[in-house]
C-alpha cells in the first residue's frame, strides 16, 4: 500500500481517536478526507484546536457535515473515491444515552447505514468502523473474547454499537463489502474526551472539586492509550481487508490493553501525577455501567503481531503533561 497514492476517508476526524488517526496517516503521507459535524456534546473548542493542527497538512481536506446527510456523503464518495473508509463518527457515551436516546439512533444507526450504502455504491475496498467494549454488556467471563455472546447490551449506546456489527455482517454477506469492527476499550490520552474519567477527574482535582466515584471505586477498566489504538488501526488497515476466502469478509477485533485497572488505583495514579489529592464522592454503580472491562487481544497478536505496550502509569504521565500545557497550568 503506497501511502502517497492511498486515499483514506475518516469520519469523526475532529474527535479524539479520529484526530490522532488522521494526524498519524498524514504524517505517513496518506491523503485524508475528513468529515465531522462539530457538535457540542463536549467542548467544541477542543475539536477546533484538533482541526487546526490537521488543516496545516496540504493533503488533508475537511468537510463539516453529518452522517445522516446521505446526499452529502454520496457526493464526497463520488468526488474523492476513497480506497479505505474508517468510520469513527458516532454519538458516544453510555450515560448520555439514558437521557438523549434519539441522538444515538440518528448518528449511530442512520449514519452507519448511510456509510455502508456509500461503500456498496462506490465499491470501497475496506471499511473499518468503531464498535465498543460496551457490546459485551454484563458479561462476567473475562477476558472478553470476540467469540463471546454479545446479545445482552445494557445501554442504548451498547445496543447501537452491536447493531452496527450486525448490519456490517449483513452487508459483508450480501454485497461482499469487507468490514472490520474495532471494539475500543476505554481509550485515553492527550487531546482526549472531557466526558471521560481521566480527563474529567483531572479537571475536578485541579479545581478542587469533588469527583463522583461510581461503584465506590470498585470498577475495573481496560484503559488503552491512544498511540496503541492508532497503531492497531493502522496495522489492520495496512494488513488489508478480511480475505475473499473468508465468507463473509467480516472480522471484529478487541482494541484493548489487556490490563484492567481498578478505578481507585487509577485515581491514586492521577493524584500522584497531579501532585494533588482528590475530593471523593463514593456512589453506587450507575444504570448502563458494567463493573469490569478486560480485552482478549489474541487476534491482534496473531493477525498483526501487535500488543499494546504503554502502561497506565506512562500514559497518565503523558496525558497530565499535555493537559497542563493545553490549559496553561503551572
TrEMBL record:
Q: Could you confirm whether the keyword NAD appears in this record?
A: yes
SUPFAM superfamilies (UniProt xref) = NAD(P)-binding Rossmann-fold domains
- The answer to keyword ATP-binding applying to this record is no
Domain (NAD-dependent epimerase/dehydratase): give its ranges. Answer: 8-256
Database matches in Pfam families: Epimerase
Q: Which InterPro entries match?
A: Epimerase_deHydtase, NAD(P)-bd_dom_sf
Q: State the UniProt keywords alphabetically.
A: NAD
Q: Which domain of life is it from?
A: Bacteria
The name on file for this protein is NAD-dependent epimerase
Give the organism, scientific name: Niallia oryzisoli
Amino acid at each position: 500500500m503506497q501511502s502517497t497514492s492511498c486515499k483514506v476517508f475518516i469520519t469523526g476526524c475532529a474527535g479524539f481517536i479520529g484526530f490522532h488517526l488522521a494526524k498519524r496517516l498524514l504524517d505517513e503521507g496518506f491523503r485524508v478526507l475528513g468529515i465531522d459535524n462539530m457538535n457540542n456534546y463536549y467542548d467544541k473548542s477542543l475539536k477546533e484546536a484538533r482541526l487546526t493542527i490537521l488543516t496545516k497538512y496540504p493533503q488533508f481536506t475537511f468537510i463539516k457535515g453529518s452522517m445522516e446527510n446521505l446526499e452529502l456523503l454520496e457526493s464526497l464518495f463520488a468526488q474523492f473515491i476513497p480506497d479505505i473508509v474508517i468510520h469513527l463518527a458516532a454519538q458516544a457515551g453510555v450515560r448520555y444515552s439514558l437521557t438523549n436516546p434519539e441522538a444515538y439512533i440518528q448518528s449511530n444507526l442512520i449514519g452507519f447505514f448511510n456509510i455502508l450504502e456509500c461503500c456498496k455504491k462506490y465499491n470501497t475496498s475496506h471499511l473499518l468502523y468503531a464498535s465498543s467494549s460496551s457490546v459485551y454488556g454484563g458479561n462476567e467471563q473475562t477476558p472478553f473474547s470476540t467469540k463471546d455472546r454479545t446479545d445482552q447490551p445494557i445501554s442504548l449506546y451498547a445496543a447501537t454499537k452491536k447493531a452496527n456489527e450486525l448490519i456490517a455482517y449483513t452487508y459483508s454477506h450480501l454485497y461482499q463489502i469487507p468490514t472490520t469492527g474495532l471494539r475500543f476499550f476505554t481509550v485515553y490520552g492527550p487531546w482526549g474526551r472531557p466526558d471521560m474519567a481521566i480527563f474529567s477527574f483531572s479537571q475536578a482535582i485541579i479545581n478542587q472539586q469533588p469527583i463522583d466515584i461510581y461503584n465506590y471505586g470498585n470498577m475495573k477498566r481496560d484503559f488503552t492509550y491512544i498511540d496503541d489504538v492508532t497503531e492497531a488501526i493502522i496495522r489492520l488497515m495496512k494488513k488489508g481487508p478480511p480475505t475473499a476466502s473468508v465468507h463473509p469478509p467480516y472480522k471484529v477485533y478487541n482494541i484493548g490493553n489487556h490490563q484492567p485497572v481498578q478505578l481507585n488505583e487509577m485515581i491514586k495514579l492521577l493524584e500522584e501525577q497531579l501532585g494533588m489529592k482528590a475530593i471523593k464522592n463514593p456512589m453506587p454503580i450507575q444504570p448502563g455501567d458494567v463493573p469490569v472491562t478486560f480485552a482478549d487481544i489474541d487476534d491482534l497478536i496473531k493477525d498483526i503481531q501487535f500488543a499494546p505496550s504503554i502502561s497506565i502509569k506512562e500514559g497518565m504521565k503523558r496525558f497530565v503533561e499535555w493537559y497542563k500545557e493545553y490549559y496553561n497550568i503551572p
